[in-house]
Amino acid sequence: MEREKERVLEEVMIMYGDELVRLAFHYVKNVETAKDIVQSTFIKCYQHLDSFRYKSSLKTWLYRITINGCKDYLKSWHHRKVQAVQLIQDVAGAIFSSVEDNVIQKEAKEELQQVVYTLPTIYREVIYLYYYQSFQIEEIGDMMELNTSTVKTRLKRARQRLKTKLEVNYHG
Hints:
This protein has 172 residues and is mainly α. 86% of the residues lie in helices and 0% in strands. It is built from seven helices and no strands.
């Protein structure tokens, strides 16, 4: 009789295994959990095959066992704990990644400021007024009593020097 049960179990595992995993996945949304539930289904099938009365098909019976296993899992403390931990990790990940991004941006900004401070005054002041105070080129020209082409030239040269110094910092 045991040999017959093993043969039947092997057949149903081959015939319905993938279907049952897809069914379980539909409920639990996790492949490994779905496989565990289906494995449990096959264990129950083996344990209770002697009492199966064939009032329904074996496939229907396996589906019912799998669905009940999924529902039990979804009601379980483990599942709720996993869901809570996942939610906390998602929220913490969002917070920490934004904190990390802010720290990186702050460090980059501070490094850029340090490099700006190394520029000669005529370049440093146009960079400061243009990028940090958001003045237009014409306004900077008026403030510094320079024509706009001189402001543009100084901005261009300042950018070139910044680019060179930053490349040296990153690559040198």
